[in-house]
Amino acid sequence: MDRAYKLFEEQQLARGIDLKQVHEKLKSIRIETPSWGYVNQGTRFKTFEKMGMPRNTYEKMEDAAQVHKFTGICPAVALHIPWDKVEDYTNLKEHAGSLGISMGAINPNLFQENEYMLGSVCNIDSKIRRKATEHLLECVDIAKTVGSDVLSLWFADGTNYPGQGPIRQRVQWMYECLKETYDALTPNMRMLIEYKFYEPAFYHTDLADWGMAFNMANKLGKQAEVLVDTGHHAQGTNIEHIVAYLIGEKKLGGFHFNSRKYGDDDLIVGSVNPYELFLIFYQILDAAADQDPAIQTTANNIAYMIDQSHNIEDKIPAMIRSVLNVQTQYAKALLVNLAEVRAAQEKQDVLGAEQAVREAFEMDVTPLLRAVREEMGVPCDPMSAYLQSGYGISILSRG
Ligand code: PSV
Ligand code: MN
Ligand code: MN
């Protein structure tokens, strides 16, 4: 055991932290990576062409497998259909399996085709709504084939101008499409509903915030839950409050993690706002320790996914960086002494409570993460191990 870890252990024992539990939690967290994070991306001004990009979904799986190989905590990849459309999904599943990974959330894409310019499930034209519903149903089938239990929905539907669409009716149309889709789920499947306050629609978006997604999920039933994409909020929104509230209602299903400075910037997770990420995990871990088993279950069943796009940086290292940043903030949140926070709250000790939370954020968890990675049999420094592996150079032959 190295000296740094020995000191860390002594420090945490003195603070009353159960390090065995911390290790177990760090070993069991799973973070899904998105297939669309491995390909050329850009801004609305330019998509930059990079060398070595995956030429198909099979090669995206190969790149995603690298992230899992070096971190040990990313065994699933989210698919976006039709971006990831293949002839034979069973074959894709087998290919992924041979690489040691599996298929995660299935994301229908209802914003790519010309017909959806004025909306998909909220379109005033019932034929277009039918087409959208058929695509949702196709995605449920794909999920069943590849063994995924999550259908993750985001709708670009909205309007750009006042009067452009019948706002109340559009929500009802969406509900009808989603109800048909919901009814096609098997009992083990979940439907996650993501919200976003603007973009691409600039006047109104049909599911603009967590309350609208929550309401939709409630109407649909137990298997529908809310997905929080950290980039989809107005400046200053208290995301950890939304997280705590949704867990309290047993309706938080998953996350799309990314970082933002202004809008939906989709930057590397935790690059701009690590404290926010830490505070999100603090709320989740506090809920996981709740006396109500249903709250515990919700907190323990959250699907953690990354949703970032890389405009200028190398894809695989950027994804590894995001995963490591999530892991670091999760590790720090595991060091919050919840009993101490609670005692300060009972005493109405404002500064004491804030100190008990912040103290964990200020800890250096490097020795802890190195020790956990050693136990997991992955490199202590996944980023430099990946960079030295030569994989980034080997894929340049793809062109
Ligand atoms: C939309 O901004 C979003 O966050 C949704 O999750 C999409 O599926 C994803 O980005 C990719 O466009
Ligand atoms: Mn998202
Ligand atoms: Mn987004």
How many domains, in number, for the residues?
1
Query: What percent strand?
Result: 5-15%
- CATH class call: Alpha Beta
Overall pLDDT metric: 97
| Unreliable residue runs | none
Helical residue percent band: 40-55%
Biggest sheet features = 8 strands, parallel
Small-molecule binders here are: alpha-D-psicofuranose, manganese (II) ion
Radius of gyration: 21 Å
CATH-derived architecture: Alpha-Beta Barrel
CATH homologous superfamily descriptor: Divalent-metal-dependent TIM barrel enzymes
The arrangement of helices and strands along the chain is HHEHEHEHEEHEEHEHEHHEHHHHHH
At the fold tier of CATH, the topology name is TIM Barrel
Pfam families: AP_endonuc_2
GO biological process, one term: rhamnose catabolic process
EC number: 5.3.1.14
Keywords: Isomerase, Manganese, Metal-binding
